[in-house]
Amino acid sequence: MLLAHCYFLSCAGSTWASSALVHAFLQGQSVQCQQLTGVLDDCLCDIESIDDFNTFKIFPKIQKLQERDYFRYYKVNLKRPCPFWADDGHCSIKDCHVEPCPEEAFIDWARYDDSQDHFCELDDERSPDAQYVDLLLNPERYTGYKGPSAWRVWNSIYEENCFKPRSVYRPLNPLAPSRGESFYTWLEGLCLEKRVFYKLISGLHASINLHLCANYLLEETWGKPSWGPNVKEFTRRFDPIETKGEGPRRLKNLYFLYLIELRALSKVAPYFERSVVDLYTGNGHEDAESKALLLEIFRDTKSFHMHFDEKSMFAGDKKGAKSLKEEFRLHFKNISRIMDCVGCDKCRLWGKLQTQGLGTALKILFSEKEIQNLPENSPSKGFQLTRQEIVALVNAFGRLSTSIKELQNFKVLLQRTR
User: Fold this and answer.
1) 391-406: average pLDDT
2) Angle at 224 between CA 221 and CA 228, to 5 degrees
3) 282: left (phi over 0), alpha (psi -120 to 50) or beta
4) Taking residues 165-187, what's their average pLDDT?
5) 141 known ligand binder
6) First-to-final CA distance of the chain
7) Does 154 carry a binding-site annotation?
8) 143 marked ligand binding residue
9) How many Å apart are CA 324 and CA 252, to the nearest integer?
């Protein structure tokens, strides 16, 4: 069977998985491998512009920023019990394990953070079970954690938190294609805000799957693992034929999520441009360099000319908009709690970080007026970000930037194996 090796990697328009094209493949007809171009739904941005912008502007700088001490250490509680169902087994594979850092190394950081004014609940950060983790030493990759335990997490997220009617079901395995086009008919009838919510979760799911495909355990010889891209796994999760057209939808939503978090970075720039905000690690020279690089990335995000317009969201009557925004927030908070049900510690770490990063991005987009009114030389009671939120925001966007880059790598690999 001829696989759609090239065309679905750079197209975002409605022709990505048109029934005619998929039908042609299923009938075994020869369809020339080609790149399609198009515009993402619910915004005015094409895939090619995002690819070029990410490759040449964002990816190299965000990679450098993630390597700096302020952004490489994330404090997380991996011992919280699942609040929704009984523990169905913890991953015993060695690659699921997370190695925390000695707490003593961060006493000065904690003392500095505690001296700041906070106006939000600090959840995991204040838990006695929370520990600092070096993200560079615990990279996100395929650990072998899979099957019903893993599927149950994503199935719960889609079933309970995406504004989906009870009469519409996904299969237990979220990687399997859903029941044809009928699964998406309900989505088309939703308001913009609810469609956006679903696309954000689907985009996050697609991004995480891409990371696993790109950093897959290929073999292990004499106790030395070899990690790298797994084309077969990538095809299984994203090929239009094997997913019955759903793979391209997942990739579209990845790009959409990238745009949302990119917009948040451009909007939060004034918060960090103030002299009162620093990226404290105790090393004044490195802290200054980290902030300079962060501000440079913000300038790049502002230069992008096809941003998602968040003003179109929650623009109805004030009472209805407020109610919908609260519903939005509660759904997302519930998803963050579901991440405590992930049985693999490393998967849980990255799931919690990327969920918090997206939550921080939404917090920014919902706080535009507060950010615009920030005082120059003092904290603001209207808007503030904790160290955890900042670290999560940057690393979550870094993961999306990596996903976009990995798509280009898989495109090359697929062309070679065609």
Assistant:
1) 97
2) 90
3) left
4) 59
5) yes
6) 11
7) yes
8) yes
9) 25
* Angstrom distance (rounded) from CA 207 to CA 403: 6
Q: Which two tokens stand for residue 200?
A: 């954000």
> Which candidate, 241, 191, 200, 64, places its Cα nearest to that of 136?
64
Determine contact, residues 163/190, Cβ cutoff 8 Å: yes
Provide φ and ψ at 227, rounded to 5°.
-110, 145
40 CB-near residues (< 8 Å, 6+ apart): 12, 46, 47, 252, 255, 256, 259
- What backbone torsions phi and psi does residue 224 show, to the nearest 5 degrees? -110, 105
Q: Are 41 and 16 in contact (CB under 8 A)?
A: no
- Asked if residues 163 and 198 have their Cβ atoms less than 8 Å apart, the reply is yes
| Segment 180-189 long-range contacts (CB within 8 Å, at least 24 positions apart) | 180/244, 184/249
State the residue for tokens 């502007």. Answer: 57
Q: How many helices (H) and strands (E) does the chain have?
A: 15, 4
Q: What pLDDT score was predicted for residue 319?
A: 77
**Mean predicted confidence (pLDDT) in 221-245:** 87
307 is in an annotated binding site: no
In sequence order, what are the residues at sequence separation of 6 or more whose Cβ sits closer than 8 angstroms to the Cβ of residue 33?
Answer: 4, 5, 6, 7, 415, 418
Q: Residue 258: enclosing H or E segment and its boundaries?
A: helix 246-273
User: For residue range 53-112, what is the model confidence (pLDDT) as tens digits?
Assistant: 999 999 999 999 999 999 999 999 888 888 887 765 566 566 777 878 776 867 787 777
**How far is residue 349 from each of residues 49, 243, 387, measured CA to CA in Å?**
31, 28, 16
Tell me the sheet residues that pair with 132: 75
pLDDT of residue 167: 63
- 151 marked as part of a ligand binding site: no
Q: Which residue has the tokens 């065309």?
A: 7
Half-sphere exposure of 307 (CA within 13 A, CB side): 18
This prediction's pTM: 0.84
**What are the start-end ranges of the H helices in 143-245?**
148-161, 182-188, 192-214, 231-238
pLDDT at 1: 33
Residue 418 has what DSSP assignment? -
Among 415, 412, 406, residue whose Cα is nearest residue 212: 406
Angle at 398 between CA 164 and CA 288, to 5 degrees: 135
pLDDT number for residue 46: 85
Question: Is the distance from CB of 260 to CB of 307 less than 8 angstroms?
Answer: no
Residue 347 bears catalytic tag:
yes
11 labelled catalytic = no
pLDDT, tens digit (0-9, with 9 covering 90-100), for 27-38: 332 222 233 346
Look at residues 50, 2, 9, 54 and name the one whose alpha carbon lies nearest to residue 26.
Answer: 2
